[in-house]
Write a structure and sequence with these properties.
Layout (H helix, E strand, L loop, with lengths): L1 E5 L10 E8 L5 E8 L5 E3 L11 E7 L2 E7 L8 E5 L1 E2 L6
Length: about 90
């Protein structure tokens, strides 16, 4: 899975973190948490991800107070490419 992480200004975000939690295998007993950082061009890559997962893969990207996400079903797509825009989180006021 290849990622290009940008801000709302469409500029690449350096040092953003992209995380994924993977539950796989019989009964989803095997679990794996992966994290990768972006380079100066806002690019990051995961290789060797399992092809069979029950619920797909949910990727979360973050940098400071900005977040974004992407979803992939590896059984349907191979070598996915994602463009994720990081936005500031909206906080509710009581």
């Amino acid at each position: 899975a290849d990622f290009t992480i940008t801000g709302t200004d469409n500029k690449p975000v350096y040092s953003a973190k992209v995380k994924v939690h993977i539950a796989y295998g019989f009964g989803s007993f095997h679990k794996l948490d992966l994290e990768v950082g972006t380079n100066v061009d806002g690019k990051a890559r995961f290789t060797g991800l399992p092809e069979r997962v029950k619920k797909g893969l949910f990727f979360e990207a973050s940098e400071g107070d900005r977040t974004g996400n992407a979803f992939d079903d590896p059984e349907k797509t191979c070598k996915s490419q994602f463009a994720v825009t990081l936005r500031k989180s909206v906080q509710e006021t009581p």
